[in-house]
Amino acid sequence: MSVELTSRSIGQEETYYDNYVEQSVDCDVTLPDYCPDIMRIIKCTVSTSITGSKLIGDRATADGNAKIRIIYADEKNKVFCYDQDYPFSRYAELNSAFDDAFLSCSAKTEYVNCRAVSKRRIDVHGALSIRFRVLGNKSKSLISDACGDGIQLKRKGLDIDDIVAVTTKSFEISQAESVGDNNAGIGKILDTFASPILHETKIIKGKILLKGELAVRVLYCSDNSNNETCTLCINIPFNEIVEAATVTDDCKVDVKMHITRLTAEPKTDNDSEYRYMNINAEILAQVTAYKNQSINIVTDAYSTENEINATYTPMDFQLLESTINESIVCKQSLDVSSMKPQKLYAFSVSAPECRSRTEGDRIIISGKVPVNLIVIDSEGVPVLCEREAEFDFSRIIDDENSACCMPRTSLGGCSANLMSDGRIDFKAELFINAAVTKNVREKVLTSLEVEVDKGKKDKKPSVVIYFCSGGESVWDIARRYNTTVEDIMQENELSADYLENKRMLLIPVK
User: Exposed, middle or buried: residue 355 (CB in 10 Å: 0-12, 13-18, 19+)?
Assistant: First the structure.
């Protein structure tokens, strides 16, 4: 008699490749004639953007631009800024070509150093890390049932979220925003920062609707003689549709978003004055869709008639228990009293860093918001202060033993005010987005073959008296004596397949 196997496939998100490639930044920045001389460099930054990426065969390529920004003071302690672009192109050699996969590229600045070689020239050295990630939805096969040749199976029921789609969509956002009639015109831009904030996802007939906004903050110098700074804060709404034919209305969706390109450029009005800001951004959305299913996995197998060759493979199963999509307020008093500040000239923020941990029945998300402050000291000199504002968020969870999440934090509006004691009162609105998952690893049966020419050896008596020591499973006893769980339970009138107490059993042997 042949064995009939029943298999099923489970969709799982697979990371085929994930690695970093370093890109150096080495250049000379020479100021044009219209910029004043450098007396002291306040800060040098490098902001990165990916302008294009492609996956061809076993090679992944990313094209991008690093914007070098020099913020400095002239001999009158006025603050000025100069930008220079540094385009780059990098590639990664993959271990093979991947079908039905997509490429996700991002770049970040590892470090940057600069020195003024003269009053007109700056030497810049730095390094970027370009991350190449190749992702896809991989189908993994497992055996769910088998019959024939005395095959016995130990099954376990699981509630899982089967991944039915993994896809990405890149989309652009642009808007021209007026700085208002009461403000001075736009001079040099000191800093540009933006965060994508996802408010809602909705599934409609194989399409996933993403609704949210891009929170943009642009810090710039006015074009008047006072050299004051101004801040333009705008929220640009977006509604995007992601095509996913395998997604149904009962699916769950997890969305990760990051900005691959961001620019802010002054634009003239009808009077030829720079009173408009052109905002352009490109956002990459990675969408993973899950469908809840109840499945049976086989964790052990044997045959009462023949020897078998069975392969067991460790496999991870995931259940998306809940999603976090909430806003909190981060407040902190930042001490800059050692600088003897007389005025807060300007401040900028960077992307928040966060992590998660479990404590008891709570999952805690904590992190820091990097804050760069330029203060005017008691001698009228602009000085840079780098500080961090800490935040914490907690949520009660059902199963603290196996729950985990990879939190993502977006920054909304923020403010900073200098107090009389030399401290800065900083406040920011943070949007926390995370998928709380329960991960289970099980050893599952993935292949089974019966050795038909090798019957069971060492036949036992037809009935064995066995004294159970307590804390044993009927499955383990049946496997040991080459019989079935059903026969033992029927012979001994057992109602449960786990024996807590000591007792005698009659084992009918096949």
Answer: exposed
CB 327 within 8 A of CB 432: yes
Residue 474 has φ and ψ, to the nearest 5°, of -65, -30
pLDDT in tens, 9-53: 888 888 899 999 999 999 999 999 989 999 999 999 999 999 899
What separation in angstroms does the CA of 455 have from each of 308, 426, 492, 509? 10, 77, 28, 15
Q: Domains of the chain (ranges plus CATH)?
A: 10-137+163-291+319-440 (no CATH), 458-510 (3.10.350)
Query: Could you tell me the two tokens for 356?
Result: 């998660």
Per DSSP, the three-state class of 116 is: strand
Name the residue type at position 443.
K
* Residue whose pair of structure tokens reads 């997604």 in the numeric block: 247
**Which residues lie below 8 Å from residue 228, measured CB to CB, with a gap of 6+?**
184, 221, 222
Inter-residue contact 9 to 141 (CB < 8 Å): yes
Nearest by Cα to 146 from 314, 300, 315, 313: 300
Q: How far apart are CA 322 and CA 264, in angstroms?
A: 37
How much is the pTM?
0.84
User: H helices within 120-161, ranges in order?
Assistant: none
Which segments within 57-100 are labelled E, that is strand?
59-73, 79-93
Return all residues near 246 (Cβ < 8 A) that are at least 6 apart: 164, 165, 206, 289
pLDDT in tens, 269-321: 888 888 999 999 999 999 999 999 888 899 999 988 888 899 999 988 888 88
Q: Tens digits of per-residue pLDDT, 467-503?
A: 988 889 999 999 988 899 999 999 998 888 888 888 8
